[in-house]
Amino acid sequence: MTKYNQKSISTLCAPEVKPAQQHASRIWSLTQMGAGMAGPDSRVISCVIEKLTDAQGNFKGKTPWAVIGEVQHHPSVSRELKSLEWRSAVTVDQITGLLYRKPPAANGFSNSWLDSGEDAIRSWVGTWGRVSSDHNAGAYRFEPLNLPGRSQPSFPDVDDLINELLADYVIDRLDHPVLQRLLNPVTPPAQSRYEASAALDIEENNDEVY
């Protein structure tokens, strides 16, 4: 976790409560935001990724959760941590929110999704556009938008947005329900070979594989 106000995030956190939908709609992966612009400032936060499934175990999406405090250093938790970059962003409809992505690892590990994500975010900062996934190429594509007369937006402070929008997505204890589900997964009902293969295809084609 970076140096911004960890205490305020931890204080606001209510892990047992279902995350507020108005917050969820303002937290975007690269392809979820749609048309808009990325802000210049970013923060890197240690997170775990909750994979969402239906009752049959079919993949439905992902939710990042910030992990703070001593729980980060627990051996079983540290293996699951992902460093995600968060930055403020504004849509063409003037909705402000947080844009997140997984940058190339500090140890040099990368892949086509991470490299193209780096290029996409570099192009998106200060430029109106949108990002899509090219699954055939295994890469993100940035498309600039020509918006004559559209002025540069003002971006909220990224630290203020993090404290506001991630307040419901914080893990600060080992017995947090999301963390327990991640560390002790329940085996879903048996699937046919076709169903299992289809579910895997959906998961691997939902942005880059974390």
Structural class: alpha/beta
Low-confidence stretches: 1-23, 193-207
> What gross morphology would you assign?
globular
* Count of β-strands: 8
Largest sheet, strands/sense/barrel: 6 strands, mixed
Strand content is 25-35%
Short description:
With 210 residues, the chain is of the alpha/beta class. The protein is 26% helix and 28% strand. A 6-stranded mixed β-sheet has the order 1-5-4-2-3-8, with helices on both faces.
Describe it for me?
With 210 residues, the chain is of the alpha/beta class. The chain has one domain (6-204). Helix content is 26%, strand content 28%. The chain is built from seven helices and eight strands; from the N terminus they run ααβββαββαββαβαα. It has helices at residues 6-12, 21-24, 75-78, 112-124, 158-165, 177-183, 193-204, and strands at residues 27-28, 36-53, 59-67, 82-91, 96-101, 129-134, 139-144, 170-171. The chain has a six-stranded mixed β-sheet with strand order 1-5-4-2-3-8, with helices on both faces. A hairpin with a 5-residue loop joins strand 2 (36-53) and strand 3 (59-67). The longest helix is centred in the middle third of the chain and has 13 residues, at 112-124. The chain is globular. It starts with 5 loop residues before the first helix and ends in a 6-residue tail after the last helix. Residues 1-23 and 193-207 have low confidence and may be disordered.
